[in-house]
Amino acid sequence: xxxxxxxxxxxxxxxxxxxxxxxxxxxxxxxxxxxxxxxxxxxxxxxxxxxxxxxxxxxxxxxxxxxxxxxxxxxxxxxxxxxxxxxxxxxxxxxxxxxxxxxxxxxxxxxxxxxxxxxxxxxxxxxxxxxxxxxxxxxxxxxxxxxxxxxxxxxxxxxxxxxxxxxxxxxxxxxxxxxxxxxxxxxxxxxxxxxxxxxxxxxxxxxxxxxxxxxxxxxxxxxxxxxxxxxxxxxxxxxxxxxxxxxxxxxxxxxxxxxxxxxxxxxxxxxxxxxxxxxxxxxxxxxxxxxxxxxxxxxxxxxxxxxxxxxxxxxxxxxxxxxxxxxxxxxxxxxxxxxxxxxxxxxxxxxxxxxxxxxxxxxxxxxxxxxxxxxxxxxxxxxxxxxxxxxxxxxxxxxxxxxxxxxxxxxxxxxxxxxxxxxxxxxxxxxxxxxxxxxxxxxxxxxxxxxxxxxxxxxxxxxxxxxxxxxxxxxxxxxxxxxxxxxxxxxxxxxxxxxxxxxxxx
Length: 506
Hints:
The protein is mostly helical. The chain has a domain at 61-175 and 210-216 and 235-330. The chain is built from 25 helices and no strands. It has helices at residues 9-21, 24-39, 44-58, 61-79, 82-93, 97-110, 115-132, 137-146, 149-152, 159-169, 177-184, 189-204, 210-224, 239-259, 273-278, 282-304, 309-342, 345-352, 355-361, 365-380, 383-396, 405-425, 430-439, 443-475, 479-505.
């Protein structure tokens, strides 16, 4: 089964069961079991052993520690009254549901250095605001997810830029990975159109598909619960949320730069912001930043006397418990990805994406790569893994030899866009799991409500990549200047048509 289509069967089983049964934990566990059985030629004892060995090898303990500390900080901010105070302040200054949605998006765009950090921080800060304006947790999770990976993949200074650069430069080809990343940004249609989609959905209050039903149900439930009042800490102030979050952001950015050698005098990246991010260890940097923020929060709240020492210690296990569902899903998803790697998914993809096939497909190769990246990312739940598989193969294809450097850039961007799209839709994606955790939304509900939005943008992007392949020979480097506006207009027109149809039916 190694190096064949069977390598993708375990995640397909897990995803299919999750979407059908709505039981994420059991579905992922069954996917892991099938992966173990395939990998060990159906030996029960060897399969049981391989599950724990693969889990140990693939679980990122640093990210789990980061999650736990973030959960603790959220529990502390709630207990100190900072979240409630920020919610009251926002209710006075943000007057509408559209304003609350756009403010959430703006914060997501600002926190572009890492998608994990983005998902959890934006959720913690904006949840009180969106709750005040009766925006469903599903809608909040979508806005968070749509401004996490899509923003990071077009931000030159981010952990994602570092991952793409390393994937490109590790191919052995004579190319500048960072320069290629910059050139690919205008062609990253899915990421750019997703941000446009969020603006349109928030500004026009347009919801459709399963998201519309979720919003209607939440509004009805919020109206029934309007009379209930939660117990709040009267000492809480807006600064009790803003200062810990500001220290968290500064700490995480500094931690990322520290692990990249930015602050080390004898390091090659000393005081070099770009290369400091390129060589950083994202998980370690985030843990260092979260630890500094947690210590600061303890000292600050003790000095402010908004919480007792016992109250502080009580919040620590509460924060841990709040993150247990996300940690469990992530652990199973990482283990499943480990078996996908062990079963040789990369070798299977190489049998599909050959030079002969590229020559046959010709101008539609960017669109084909986009779909292929979506499929791999959706099945494996990892955009970074998808890019690590596809980008070296794409760089090795004879685009440059044929004198078509523009098509190489477009193809690279199509892989990146497809990887983000598949990751956006996959129930086993770590970013999707983090977005659900940040919004405190039931995970499978987030997946179901986000899917129609992501598929609409993917459809427009697919047509855009067909146009790129057809027009690049004539337009060269100006291809994006023509194709991107055309796709943007098409997406806006479709959304306005959906809105007009909904008003007509109403």
